[in-house]
Every structure is written in C-alpha cells, then in structure tokens.
Amino acid sequence: MWCFSLQRRSLHSSLCLMKKTKSKTPAEQRWMQRQLKDPYVKASHQQHFRCRSAFKLLEIDDKFRILKPGYSVVDCGAAPGAWSQVAVQRVNSAGTAASACDASDPDLPRGTVIGIDLLNIPPLDGAHFLPSHDVTDLATHAKLLELLPHSRAHVVLSDMAPNASGFRDMDHEKLILMCLSLIDLAGKILQPGGSLLCKYWDGILAHELQDKLSAVFGSVRTLKPNASRKDSAERYFLAGMYRKQEKRL
C-alpha cells in the first residue's frame, strides 16, 4: 500500500507538470520535460526530499563519511532545505537515526544542523533555520557562534549559488567569491580537522579557490556527483582536515 501510494503521488506530480507545460515558453517547456524524465526528481518525490540536490550530498557522504551522528553542521544557502534534510538524518539531530537493525537508536549522539539563507526555508524537525540571513554578514557569524555547541562546527556545507545573469564568466566569478567567503566563515566556526563542502562552477578562477582551500585544509578533492547533470559546469570541492589558523597581531 505504501509503495502504491508513492507511485500514485509520483504519477500525480507528473500529470500536474504536463498540464502546466502547455502554457509555458519553449525554454520553460524544455526544463519541465527534463524534470519529468529526471530519475532523481522522481526519487526525491518518493523519498520525500525537498529537491533532487539531496542525492548529491547523499552520494558524497556515502563515499567520504563527512556527516556522523553527533556532528554539528552549518548548511549555507540552505533553501529549500534538501541538504539540511540529509544532514539531519546523518548527524541524528532529530534523534531518529537508525541503527544497523533499522530501528531508531537512542544511544546515538544527537548532532546539530543550522541552515542559513536569504530566502525563507520551511521548518524542518531537527534543524534550526536562519532565513533572511546573509552568510557573509558578521551578525550572522555571531548568531552561529551562539547557536553552535561550543561555538564550533564539524562541517560547513554550501550548495548556494548566485541568481544566474546569463553571463557565464560573471556568474562563475560571483560563485567563486561566495565560496571564498566560506573560508573566512570557517576561520570563525570550523573546528580543527573539520570539513568544508562547497559548490562552484568550473572556470578560470577555480584554481584560485582550490589554492586558497589548500592553504588551510589538509586535503582538497574535486567532485562531480552522478546526480549533477552531465551538461552542467557544476562541481564541488570537498576540503578536509581543517588547520585552524592562528591570528597574527
């Protein structure tokens, strides 16, 4: 019955998209047709994720295990909340993580998930959201230090991106600057040995970002999850083993 319900919900979503397609521009129609054919879109409906991007983080974490029960996580550019959903599950911030026997394990440590975005984020059990907050704002940094246990995070996540202008080089530069701001944020909240996962668009400034990350992290990997569309310039840097920088007078 549960599987049938999921199939019916997925079929209903597809039919709604098909009805809406008729009144759209050719570009919008192409986008909607791609959504209909996308297996990750269908899977996100079936598994109750807020959008398909959840599977990018799931794939990365399945391979590298950056999210563990009890960890504190800051999700930058969190809206609509799909990455926060994954983080809540993996760090057990809602107290519902399953053990090997597929049942909730009360002995697992509970983590913390804090999501930040300029946009509104629908509430999520196990996450504390800061809507209408700029991740580069000092007031936001102060709020994070107040909310994080011991004022430290184990992981900083970022799937944020600027609104596309249509000029590839300009958008690439904007996103690189946003990623660079995360290194400053890490200097305030990330504990030694912590990890930073950030999205970037491939381009001429990607090596500059990689060099900046390599200066403060022990390892930096470039990733292209299977859930990232092949025709997209989207990539991720996974930086681990953070080396806390001492402030110089």
Automatic annotation (TrEMBL):
Residues 49-240 form the Ribosomal RNA methyltransferase FtsJ domain. InterPro entries: RNA_methyltr_RlmE, RNA_MeTrfase_FtsJ_dom, rRNA-MeTfrase_E, SAM-dependent_MTases_sf. The keyword Transit peptide applies. It comes from the Eukaryota. The active site is at residue 199. One of its GO terms (molecular function) is rRNA (uridine-2'-O-)-methyltransferase activity. Gene3D superfamilies: Vaccinia Virus protein VP39 (3.40.50.150). It catalyses: uridine(1369) in 16S rRNA + S-adenosyl-L-methionine = 2'-O-methyluridine(1369) in 16S rRNA + S-adenosyl-L-homocysteine + H(+). It is found in: Mitochondrion. One of its GO terms (biological process) is mitochondrial large ribosomal subunit assembly. It holds the Pfam family FtsJ. S-adenosyl-L-methionine-dependent 2'-O-ribose methyltransferase that catalyzes the formation of 2'-O-methyluridine at position 1369 (Um1369) in the 16S mitochondrial large subunit ribosomal RNA (mtLSU rRNA), a universally conserved modification in the peptidyl transferase domain of the mtLSU rRNA. This activity may require prior 2'-O-methylguanosine modification at position 1370 (Gm1370) by MRM3. Essential for late-stage assembly of mtLSU required for efficient translation of mitochondrial DNA encoded proteins; methyltransferase activity is not required for this function. Belongs to the class I-like SAM-binding methyltransferase superfamily. RNA methyltransferase RlmE family. PANTHER family: RIBOSOMAL RNA METHYLTRANSFERASE, RRNA METHYLTRANSFERASE 2, MITOCHONDRIAL. This is rRNA methyltransferase 2, mitochondrial. It comes from Labrus bergylta.
